[in-house]
């Protein structure tokens, strides 16, 4: 088997297993609240703890990239996932559980950063960023029926983590076959991760990642509430609609690499935010269920490739020695948006759900403006 192809497949598998692990929490929030008898205010801190841990670890891991091998860093990250699973499995109190989920955040932050860096160091034809992100979406889709099966059979939710202990242990063994090395491992000079932010392209597009992540997560968090309040859609129907959104979103990413190769990353980024804004206007101005579904479908399909398009463009337009740093910065801004921006938007959504989507218009407008700027600059260079 081709070495680069083998490395790519192992990276995809790791991201899929990490997605199964990280997406297990959300469906169990209510179950955890009832199991441990905690208040709404206390249970509400659980997701932010995971996000915060992931953000902190992504910064730490950016530094670790120059101190340890990529393979070792990846395996340590997944080892954290096993430790977290054991803690969650045996926890008898909510505060022990909280420690377990904090460690799970560390695992996700470290695992995602090292996996992303490894993919970024492969030859361009193997940098399938869209399919890479689709693997994460697929894990998020598949974990839902697994969690439902656990709950419907009155099995303790903690036991779900036995599955993760097994799958992650298997992946750690498989990951020993990875052959990817950064410049530091080859004896070259290591570049400071954050020095790359002096590059305007990296800085401006990392900010675009920050805004995009806030928009994506807030869409999934608030669409259900919005549909209930403005369209009268029942709570029973909302999960099916959200599942359809994720399926469309993930399908877009499955076929996205070929599409981006043909259209071009900047051209796509100059069109997709406009389509997303159109989708927002459809759901904000509509008054029938069909209009709501159309608007959500437009948003899902139009934004599905924004992240991999930005990610791929940045990675493929920095010098080779700066690729690990660029990859790390993208992951850090991703986690920064997930940690802070979604909760700022959540505050606005608590006032009025439609404000969530109105704010997103400004986020997509930023992505559009920056993309158009670099598209015009690239076109001028080609003409000259």
What is this structure's SSE topology?
Elements lengths: L2 H20 L6 H8 L3 H4 L2 H19 L5 H21 L3 H27 L8 H24 L7 H16 L24 H32 L6 H17 L1 H8 L1 H5 L2 H14 L3 H15 L2 H10 L7 H29 L2 H30 L1
Walk me through this protein's architecture.
It is a single chain. The protein has helices at residues 3-22, 29-36, 40-43, 46-64, 70-90, 94-120, 129-152, 160-175, 200-231, 238-254, 256-263, 265-269, 272-285, 289-303, 306-315, 323-351, 354-383. With 384 residues, it is mainly α. The chain has 2 domains: 3-184, Growth Hormone, Chain: A, CATH 1.20.1250.20; 195-383, Growth Hormone, Chain: A. α7 runs antiparallel to α10 and α13 runs antiparallel to α17 (354-383). The longest helix is centred in the middle third of the chain and has 32 residues, at 200-231. The protein starts with a helix and ends with a helix. The mean pLDDT is 89. This is Fucose permease. Keywords: Membrane, Transmembrane, Transmembrane helix, Transport. It is a multi-pass membrane protein. InterPro entries: MFS, MFS_dom, MFS_trans_sf, MFS_Transporter. One of its GO terms (molecular function) is transmembrane transporter activity.
């Amino acid at each position: 088997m081709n070495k680069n192809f083998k490395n790519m497949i192992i990276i995809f598998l790791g991201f899929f297993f990490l997605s199964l692990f990280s997406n297990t929490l959300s469906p169990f929030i209510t179950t955890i609240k009832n199991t441990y008898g905690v208040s709404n205010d206390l249970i509400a801190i659980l997701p932010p703890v995971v996000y915060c841990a992931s953000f902190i670890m992504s910064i730490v891991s950016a530094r670790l990239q120059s101190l340890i091998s990529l393979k070792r860093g990846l395996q340590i990250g997944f080892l954290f996932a096993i430790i977290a699973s054991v803690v969650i499995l045996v926890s008898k109190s909510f505060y022990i559980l909280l420690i377990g989920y904090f460690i799970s955040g560390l695992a996700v932050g470290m695992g995602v950063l090292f996996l992303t860096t490894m993919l970024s160091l492969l030859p361009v034809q193997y940098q399938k960023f869209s399919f890479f992100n689709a693997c994460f979406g697929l894990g998020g889709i598949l974990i839902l029926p697994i969690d439902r099966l656990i709950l419907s059979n009155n099995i303790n939710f903690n036991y779900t983590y036995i599955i993760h202990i097994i799958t992650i242990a298997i992946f750690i063994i498989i990951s020993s076959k990875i052959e990817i090395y950064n410049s530091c491992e080859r004896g070259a000079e290591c570049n400071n991760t954050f020095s790359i932010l002096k590059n305007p392209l990296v800085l401006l597009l990392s900010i675009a990642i920050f805004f995009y992540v806030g928009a994506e997560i807030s869409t999934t968090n608030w669409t259900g509430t919005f549909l209930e309040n403005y369209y009268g859609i029942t709570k029973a129907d909302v999960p099916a609609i959200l599942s359809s959104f994720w399926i469309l979103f993930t399908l877009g990413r499955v076929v996205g690499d070929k599409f981006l190769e043909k259209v071009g990353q900047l051209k796509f980024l100059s069109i997709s935010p406009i389509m997303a804004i159109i989708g927002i206007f459809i759901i904000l101005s509509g008054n029938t269920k069909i209009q709501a579904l159309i608007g959500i479908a437009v948003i899902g399909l139009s934004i599905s490739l924004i992240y991999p398009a930005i990610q791929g463009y940045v990675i493929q337009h920095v010098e080779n020695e700066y690729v690990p740093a660029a990859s790390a910065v993208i992951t850090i801004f991703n986690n920064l948006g997930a940690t802070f921006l979604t909760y700022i938007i959540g505050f606005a959504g608590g006032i009025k759900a439609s404000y969530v989507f109105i704010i997103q218009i400004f986020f997509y407008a930023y992505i559009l403006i920056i993309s158009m700027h670099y598209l015009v600059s690239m076109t001028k260079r080609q003409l000259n």
